[in-house]
Amino acid sequence: MLPTAALARAFRRGLIRKKALSSLGYDDARGTSALRHALRTHLAAQRGLSFASHDLMVTRGSQMALFLAAQAIAEPGMAIAVENPGYPLAVTAFRASGVRVVPIDVDEGGMSIDGLEIALARDPSIRAVYVTPHHQYPTTVTMGAARRLRLIDLARTARLTILEDDYDHDYRFEGAPILPIAARAAGETVYIGSLSKLLAPGIRLGYVVAPPDLVARMAGIREAIDRQGDGPLEEAVALMIEDGELARHARRARRIYHARRDYLAARLRDTLPEALTFDIPLGGLALWARIVDSTDPERWRKAASELGLSLTPAANHSIDGLAPAAFRLGYAGLDEQEIDRAAEILKIAHLRT
Ligand SMILES: Cc1ncc(COP(=O)(O)O)c(C=O)c1O
Fold first, then answer.
1. pLDDT tens per residue, range 307-338
2. pTM higher than 0.90 for the full model?
3. Ligand 1 binding pocket includes 333 (Cβ within 6 Å)
4. Residue 87, ligand 1, Cβ within 6 A
5. Which domains does the chain have, with CATH numbers?
6. Is the minimum distance from the CB of 194 to ligand 1 under 6 angstroms?
7. Integer distance in angstroms from the first to the last C-alpha of the chain?
């Protein structure tokens, strides 16, 4: 959800402030200094990260950060280990950088580190590993502390770069916040974040925190296609962070999405108890629903689509072509009435399969 009025006010102030500073000209490819400083403070408070502002680069969404990070670390013949199922656009970014991807299985604790060790023994060209440990995409599970430590140890011994995508860190509804891997292993980690979940995917802002030589390389690559980011927008978001507007918005969004998660879970339990099972995700914006009767996910998807409901089956997230029978059901954008309607369509579509 977008705090439209607050963003519009901040944009106006940001534009005026930039103009007053005579800085609507060419700027730093790593982002405006105001937003880099604001994000540094924000990430220190929210994610326990400690870094200098020249270790951070603002990007047009985390997609650009994924692409630039892969470009910056790519070597001939290199491979990146990725979660399977996983985030397909990360794979797109890696492949576009000429890097091979090696799928590693995911279980209820995220990427299997045993699986990663086996892959490393077989394929020494794996030089990096991409993970979404806060809530694995698409299964929503959190990687626990022991597994994170094993991953860090393995990265240190095998000299792997960890690409950590902390895309939905603003949304944790239960328990203490889980700090990112980058808070423990800054030297080994390229940390990537996004403002798409807090503002909107159409507001293209993301960021990457990495050792300064890597940030400099990424900035150099970015300049080849995009001289710099959108100065007034970056200034506006810096202002929203500085005056606490973004934090207030995050608290509100968290409350609303938390309630929507619970409402969807209750509705699914009422309407489809025999067909779907799921664990309640501890945060994030989606629920991973596994099909437990023998319904074919593709037939179910088609039937729902004819009734106006778009479903994302696990096959869309498969890196190796094999997929469990499951759907990733996003709830953040739906109010209670829309959730009721979606549950109803799911039920009717299920009957039609
Ligand atoms: C795993 C993952 N990473 C990153 C993003 C955000 O991408 P962007 O910041 O480019 O909008 C998403 C959005 O859905 C995502 O699911």
1. 999 999 999 999 988 889 999 999 999 999 99
2. yes
3. no
4. yes
5. 4-243 (3.40.640.10), 248-352 (3.90.1150.10)
6. yes
7. 34
